[in-house]
Amino acid sequence: xxxxxxxxxFQATGGALTAWGLHQLPFYRKGKVLAQSAPxxxxxxxxFQNDFRPGEExxxxxxxxxxxxxxxxxxxRIRQNEPWDFTNQPALTDYYNPLTTNVPKGAPSVxxxxxxxxxxxxxxFPQASRRQxxxxxxxxxxxxxxxxxxxxxxxxxxxxxxxxxxxxxxxxKIAFSSETREYWYALWDVEPNVVLRLYKQLxxxxxxxxxLYLRDGSGKPIIDPQTGRxxxxxxxxxxxxxxxxxxxxxxxxxxxxxxxxxxxxxxxLRVDEQGNPMTDPSQLVNCGxxxxxxxxxxPFISATVNDLVRSGVxxxxxxxxxIYIQExxxxxxxxxxxxxxxxxxxxxxxxxxxxKRQAGETYDxxxxxxxxxxxxxxxxxxxxxxxxxxxxxGAQMAETVLVGVIGEGIPQERPPRAYVCSEVPKxxxxxxxxxxxxxxxxxxxxxxxxxxxxxxxxxxxxALKAAHSDRNATIEFVGSSGVTVKKTGFQEKENSQIFSLTxxxxxxxxxxxxxxxxxxxxxxxxxxxxxxxxxxxxxxxAK
Length: 543
Known about the structure:
Distance between the termini: 44 Å
Shape: globular
Number of helices: 10
Largest sheet: 4 strands, antiparallel
Helix content: 10-25%
Structural class: alpha+beta
Low-confidence stretches: 1-38
Mean pLDDT: 90
Strand content: 15-25%
């Protein structure tokens, strides 16, 4: 059984990836790599987006540096796989990190796309009418047990939308976003006022900075010790609804980590008990325990990426890593009779973040777009039809929107090994899940930002959320010397354990990431989990 609390799945309902043979790769000839890229690679922000204005170059550089480190750390974590709580999950060698890999020039890329409307709703409600399915897509399903819950949680295909209506109930705007929360948390850490500026642009000029603060039970802002400012609440009053606009994705599974995780997991070849290769899409998902077979996407992605690996290709998500909206299929849209004579349905599609494809590109890099008719045109979005049906719900448009990631492939260094199916072991290994101050554990889980400590600093009241651990487990930061940890408390929670810690970094502790090794009192342990703590220079934090 898949553990949804750990797995952040890459949902999809179709795609355009074709398995390449090695003879089709332009940089590969007779087993030799022809040309290598320069070593100055850096992960760009999603959609090549630059959210800073002239005069904000220092903040822009801070964000680029932070984002590059974040994506590198997530990539290395994903490459570790999940050997703590699943069998036959070795370190991934056919999902590569372009920051540490010589990528040949001209490495081919291709969009892997799927429909924005959530296929799981169709699967869960096979008797529902088409109009009912549209309504469920906009407003949520009638089943109180439907997962995932939460604001817009049912829109779980890495695209979410919000509908704005006028006093007569007609749609005036449909806003789509595929932008993940990880970037917005990083941007808030660097400059909250830029986040506020974007909220005003995307949702309303009425948004105030304090509306975006994370607050405790009494309503007081929760201060992030790493910045000295209130922490970000992505589920704020402006971004937690399916009406009136949205800033970015908030669905539980709609994270960048989830997209990267499924892409990486899909590089693992599987065989049955007799050693025969598995190629059936649903069998691959069930066997690897890394997706949901009743989606179109997860099985499709698993099968096509497996085909790539079998043909001799290593895979990654192309820089800049993100989830991208593609322009809707406007060929099936019809404008009302009172539309201007030369107007086209595509005239009312406006890209606000990211960008459309440029000359020579075959895909869009769109992060946020709206479909909106200016009031002076004399009609609304609801007066436009799709395949003959007037637009009553944003979900009708979502059925015409593709969203996806961009894959990239290079030749393998060695033939891949195939593995039998994963299982949940009887005695899973201790696992370090999240490390942050107690009030910020949930922020750390959802943002995937790591904890940081300055050289010469001691931090008390740190929480380590773990799994499969006992109270006498030892905790150690490995990879470099100079960081010590002391346990000061322990709590047993449902399906998890919380250790209270005091962490100290020596004045001469080497800068950079530390992996965390958790070992139970019986000696059982898995590998140290990469990037749980980063040592930074004095003066970096609370600025």
